[in-house]
Design goal:
The chain has one domain. 32% of the residues lie in helices and 34% in strands. The chain has four helices and six strands, in the order H-H-E-H-E-E-E-E-E-H. A hairpin with a 6-residue loop joins strand 3 and strand 4. The longest helix has 19 residues. It is globular and about 45 Å long.
């Protein structure tokens, strides 16, 4: 679900802003997009209400990222027993004019797969960024 729609309280809005700032600190040329999904019936049907989705766009095709746009989906799980909501994983996908060209999932094996994967340096920075995302959203539940 679009990050702009998920920012329903100060804590979530602050966490989303932290994620955006962490990415932009590492990659200052990227432009953030808190509404990466269209608001049409077909798209709404595909959107996961248990995720926060943020897009980043580069001014051109990034040779190190091997993509022009990045979609970050932070996945959540609401535990029915203790009612805690935790970030359980991050999915990152890179896109160019052909569509999705690579994907990284922290739920699976933490490696990039696709037809045009980012450089090893970017992949490592991306894994570290994903670790930071999980820390940001789970810091209150870990106390």
């Amino acid at each position: 679900m679009n990050a702009s729609e998920q920012a329903t309280n100060v804590e979530l809005a602050s966490n989303i802003a932290t994620v955006v700032n962490l990415f932009k600190f590492e990659f200052p040329d990227a432009k953030s997009d808190l509404k990466p999904w269209k608001n049409d019936p077909e798209t709404r049907e595909l959107v996961d209400p248990d995720s926060i989705d943020i897009g980043f766009h580069f001014p051109g095709i990034s040779k190190s990222w091997r993509s022009r746009s990045i979609l970050i989906q932070i996945r959540f799980y609401q535990d029915p027993i203790n009612n805690l909501r935790r970030a359980i994983g991050v999915e990152v996908a890179g896109f160019d004019h052909r569509g999705e060209v690579w994907r990284l999932s922290t739920v699976d094996n933490w490696s990039c797969v696709g037809t045009s994967e980012p450089s090893p340096e970017i992949e490592e920075k991306l894994k570290q960024f994903c670790r930071h995302i999980l820390e940001v959203f789970n810091q209150q539940t870990d106390k």
